[in-house]
Amino acid sequence: MSEKDIFVLGIETSCDETAAAIVKNGREIIANVVASQMESHQRFGGVVPEIASRHHVEQITLVLEETMRRANMDVNELDAIAVTEGPGLVGALLIGVNAAKALAFAHRIPLVGVHHIAGHIYANRLVQEMKFPLLALVVSGGHTELVYMKEHGMFEVIGETRDDAAGEAYDKVARALQLPYPGGPHIDRLAKEGKPIIDLPRAWLEEGSYDFSFSGLKSAVINTLHNAKQRGETLRPEDMAASFQASVVEVLVEKTMQAAAHYGVKQILLAGGVAANEGLRTQLREQMKRLPEVELVIPPLSLCTDNAAMIAAAGTVLLQQGKRASMALNANPSLLL
């Protein structure tokens, strides 16, 4: 007799995407709906928490209904509801958490709280089965981390950013270059047209450290632009974008390679919003030739940015491990992995 299929509804509202998805057996997407708020936040040059929360309130019911419709399923056919409990914007998280609790309570369905970064890592499982031990490079607007995993659900953060996350540095440099928000895709595109000829720092930190630091680089870009302006020189934005991206990518990739070799991993997973960066993806594929026995998994662009399929995928593993949340589940904006 074959084991029964597990269907998990994922809900994600940690920042400015209202998302819901249904995933089968933690591997297969049945339905995946994302309502983005990017246009609302663009004119402010960043995410405004109060506006994000209000949009989530307006969208959550519609997104859930659309997900069930696309999956052609009834709520009672679900085995669990997985929801992002943190980290993220507290007001935004609360909308998702309360929607999940209401559904779970009304239909007597198990509830599972998921860490947002665990979700990003498990987005890779929707592409390729995970092979342990593995190393995940998580790069997003709020996070830059190297996470070592010996088995499902076990996360050891071996390196993290000491100041700005890579995505944050991208947004700030984009603003200095007068590019629209979010800055990452614009810098990535500009970098292809420029040459990395501007000398910018790389923060390697102390020997043997897998931590990251990008605030010095961000300051160096702003100072270089400012000094050039004072001297009446014009720097090509394309060259600045290429130079900045080269610095970020070199440090990210090199530390990942060193950690992968040191920990003897079978797989390297790329995760998070900045995983959509073409320069990073290309360089990582290139450098993987140094570790021919290690497999590289990079999710498609749709699974790099915030989505709920990744939350359902991570939630399925927790469900199978017997981990459940009670109705006391609350949003935790600074939840640790």
Automatic annotation (TrEMBL):
<dbReference type="InterPro" id="IPR043129">
    <property type="entry name" value="ATPase_NBD"/>
</dbReference>
<feature type="domain" description="Gcp-like">
    <location>
        <begin position="28"/>
        <end position="312"/>
    </location>
</feature>
<keyword id="KW-0963">Cytoplasm</keyword>
<comment type="similarity">
    <text>Belongs to the KAE1 / TsaD family.</text>
</comment>
<dbReference type="InterPro" id="IPR017861">
    <property type="entry name" value="KAE1/TsaD"/>
</dbReference>
<keyword id="KW-0819">tRNA processing</keyword>
<dbReference type="GO" id="GO:0002949">
    <property type="term" value="P:tRNA threonylcarbamoyladenosine modification"/>
</dbReference>
<feature type="binding site">
    <location>
        <position position="306"/>
    </location>
    <ligand>
        <name>Fe cation</name>
    </ligand>
</feature>
<feature type="binding site">
    <location>
        <position position="188"/>
    </location>
    <ligand>
        <name>substrate</name>
    </ligand>
</feature>
<keyword id="KW-0408">Iron</keyword>
<feature type="binding site">
    <location>
        <position position="116"/>
    </location>
    <ligand>
        <name>Fe cation</name>
    </ligand>
</feature>
<protein>
    <recommendedName>
        <fullName>tRNA N6-adenosine threonylcarbamoyltransferase</fullName>
        <ecNumber>2.3.1.234</ecNumber>
    </recommendedName>
</protein>
<dbReference type="InterPro" id="IPR022450">
    <property type="entry name" value="TsaD"/>
</dbReference>
<dbReference type="Pfam" id="PF00814">
    <property type="entry name" value="TsaD"/>
</dbReference>
<comment type="function">
    <text>Required for the formation of a threonylcarbamoyl group on adenosine at position 37 (t(6)A37) in tRNAs that read codons beginning with adenine. Is involved in the transfer of the threonylcarbamoyl moiety of threonylcarbamoyl-AMP (TC-AMP) to the N6 group of A37, together with TsaE and TsaB. TsaD likely plays a direct catalytic role in this reaction.</text>
</comment>
<dbReference type="GO" id="GO:0061711">
    <property type="term" value="F:tRNA N(6)-L-threonylcarbamoyladenine synthase activity"/>
</dbReference>
<dbReference type="InterPro" id="IPR017860">
    <property type="entry name" value="Peptidase_M22_CS"/>
</dbReference>
<feature type="binding site">
    <location>
        <position position="171"/>
    </location>
    <ligand>
        <name>substrate</name>
    </ligand>
</feature>
<keyword id="KW-0012">Acyltransferase</keyword>
<dbReference type="GO" id="GO:0005506">
    <property type="term" value="F:iron ion binding"/>
</dbReference>
<feature type="binding site">
    <location>
        <position position="277"/>
    </location>
    <ligand>
        <name>substrate</name>
    </ligand>
</feature>
<feature type="binding site">
    <location>
        <begin position="138"/>
        <end position="142"/>
    </location>
    <ligand>
        <name>substrate</name>
    </ligand>
</feature>
<dbReference type="InterPro" id="IPR000905">
    <property type="entry name" value="Gcp-like_dom"/>
</dbReference>
<keyword id="KW-0479">Metal-binding</keyword>
<keyword id="KW-0808">Transferase</keyword>
<dbReference type="GO" id="GO:0005737">
    <property type="term" value="C:cytoplasm"/>
</dbReference>
<feature type="binding site">
    <location>
        <position position="184"/>
    </location>
    <ligand>
        <name>substrate</name>
    </ligand>
</feature>
<feature type="binding site">
    <location>
        <position position="120"/>
    </location>
    <ligand>
        <name>Fe cation</name>
    </ligand>
</feature>
